[in-house]
Amino acid sequence: MLTADEQDRLFEVLGATMEVMGQEYTPAALMLMVSDLSAYPLNETQHALARCRSEVKGRLTLASIVERIPSDNAHLPAAEAWALALSGQDESETIIWNGEVAGAMADARPILALGDKVGARMAFISSYERRVEQAKAESRQPQWTASLGSDPARRQDVIEQAVEQGRIAPEQAKELLPSPDRLEAKLPLPPSPEEQERRRRNANRMIQEIRHALSSESRNDRMAQKRQREREQQEQRRQQLLAQAEQMAEGTS
């Protein structure tokens, strides 16, 4: 909310802008516009009026001023907000979102869980636009927060980009990203010589056990092959004896 001095300054700039644009106005109408614009920072409103003087060809309206105020357009477009919320469904992905995006996604998530992506998108956009309109009516700016994913590399990239965009403060980023000291503390220590020797003995024992198992399997295979050959030889001998018996029977007939 503008102070009384800032409102007086805005009254002067707004009146001068209308005069430059060849538009008549009454003090009452001017005061009404100042009251509506007092929710925005003075520097942003002055910048918006400067753009109006160079861009607006017809009458100067409150809407033409507001649509050029950066803080009034701080909310993401609905399609962009949906893409952001959808990417956040990947557990590895870190996203920077706000209450309007999160709330709309909460409304759309049950539909998305049913596999209806089109229906979920429609529900999200409807909820999101309603929430943004309410935020604008209450002069609330989006409050950006981080939803951290499991991928540390993506987490750092997204948070650094959010700092550059002015969505989160550097102090907040420091809390979200571990310091180099904490990262170093999480690295495993190299094993001691005793631990290395223990691991070497365990590895050798496992190798011996594997070799023994393979050797046993090989012996079992050889024994099975030997028994198979013996069965084949017995069957061959039986066939020979049977043939001899048949020949003897034919000779006596």
Automatic annotation (TrEMBL):
It comes from the Bacteria. Keywords: Endonuclease, Hydrolase, Nuclease. Residues 239-253 have a biased composition (Low complexity). Residues 208-238 have a biased composition (Basic and acidic residues). GO terms for molecular function: endonuclease activity. The keyword Hydrolase applies. Residues 135-155, 175-253 are annotated as: Disordered. This is Restriction endonuclease. It comes from Zymobacter palmae.
